Amino acid sequence: MNTAIIGYGVYIPRYRLKVEEIANIWGEDGERIKSSLMVNEKSVPGSDEDTATIAVEAARNAIARSQIDSEELGAIYVGSESHPYAVKPTATVVAEAIRAAPELTAADFEFACKAGTAGIQTCMGMVESGICKYGMAIGADTAQCKPGGALEYTAAAGGAAYIIGENGEDDIAKIDGTFSYTTDMPDFWRREMEPYPEHGGRFTGEPAYFKHVLSAANGLLRQLELTPEDYDYAVFHQPNGKFPLKAAKRLGFPTEKVEPGLIIPDIGNTYSGSALIGLASVLDQAKPGDRIFLVSFGSGAGSDAFSLTVGEGVNKNADSSPKVSDYVNDKKYISYGEYTKSRGLLVK
Questions:
Q1: Residue numbering of the annotated binding site
Q2: What's the rounded Cα separation, in Å, for the pair 320 and 170?
């Protein structure tokens, strides 16, 4: 393959809601829930933040890191399941905000939590075919959850943007290969006009997350004739803290290769941003020559797996935009009342 990551950026809202704060409202045991989910707190968007504003901030950070002219972007794709408009693209808002419009193609993607990695694959195709020089893929969400429901403890907000271009000496990471695995699986859904999603309980684990993540991962390893021992880091979609560690163990990746990208304990599940923020956390720490294994997951269901080799560009412009740790550590705790008011939540 002749494509690489030449820029990336993230954005995570600074407001945080602790798991025990949620648990106290509903008469639950906060410590038990924290231990069960391996999540301590989640990021919450401010009253003036949505998927579009999060995507714009991540995109600006990616441009700053890449040092390219935003007008060179030939494509922008925004993956999310919480686009602010049912009919009006988020991608055009991003394009105008970063001054990439009007000579480019843009679209919104939706595939639960893997729409961002689907955007990366589309950008790869656009660049490989010569249709555009650079493409930007964004995964961002302000995840919906029913008050009092199981998802409320993890559904969070945040996003990441990646600029894809041709291989070169200043690559942040070369894309060595990608492999996808997709089926029709009723594990998680939200019908039109419904405010909150539903999930299929027993379908969400083995037949959904693990089947797709493991199948995509093993498919790529076979395709590239590599093994977990060939990689320095592994990043998986993070619906909770336990699933990615369990998937890694079943594939043969030790915990120490997963922990650098395991950000869910501190910010929750950012849905389309989850795996991509995890990847950014790894890139913030990686050295040239390191290999990274990435697998996303989207309910409904599918997984995209990627193999990356870190390039010399990872050390250039490293301080031009905030790192994942900067956003994780810049936080302000809010009460459950402030949370429900800012989110306009409906108790049904």
A1: 29, 113, 154, 202, 204, 237, 242, 246, 269, 299
A2: 15
Give the separation between CA 317 and CA 253, rounded to whole angstroms.
30
CATH code, domain carrying 22: 3.40.47.10
Contact (CB, 8 A) for 306 and 175: yes
- DSSP letter string over 62-123? HHHHHT--GGGEEEEEEE-S--S-SSS-HHHHHHHHTT--SSSEEEEE-BTBTHHHHHHHHH
pLDDT of residue 117 exceeding 90:
yes
Q: Which residues are catalytic?
A: 81, 113, 237
Note down the domain range covering 68: 1-339
| Least confident piece of the model among 13-27, 190-204, 313-327 | 190-204
Binding site as annotated, residues for CoA: 202, 242
Model confidence pLDDT, tens digit, residues 32-72: 999 999 999 999 999 999 999 999 999 999 999 999 999 99
Cβ count within 10 A of residue 341: 12
